[in-house]
Amino acid sequence: MLIEHIAMYVDDLEGARQFFETYFKATSNEKYHNQNTQFQSYFLTFDSGARLEIMTRPEHQLEEKSLYRTGYVHVAFSLGSKEAVDALTEELNAAGYEIISGPRTTGDGYYESAMIGFEGNMIELTV
To answer: What is the pTM of this model?
Structure first.
C-alpha cells in the first residue's frame, strides 16, 4: 500500500506553494479552481514522488494549531544526510521560521530538527 498524497488547507495558497517550492524543491501542477465552490488547489510533487495537495476555499476555518493536538501533527521530509538537515534548518531559521528542536539525534535514533513552517504547520527535517 502507498499513501497517494496528503492534503492541507491553507489561507495563502500562493504563499504555501512558494514555501514548498523554495525550501523543499516541490514541483507544482497548474492550479485547479472550481468556480462553483471557489475551492482551489495545487498538487506539489517532491523528488521522491511523494505529493502534497494544498487547498483553500472561502469557508475553511482557521484554528490555533497546538503542537500536541490529536490528528495529523507534522510532515517529515527526509533530506538524505545530516549535513542537509543542518543546512536547511539554518536556512529556514535565517528566513525567520521558528526552530523548535534540533538538529539532534533523538532517543529512537533519528537525526532531525523540527520547525514551525508556513501558517504554523510543524515540519520535521530528517536524514
So the answer is: 0.88
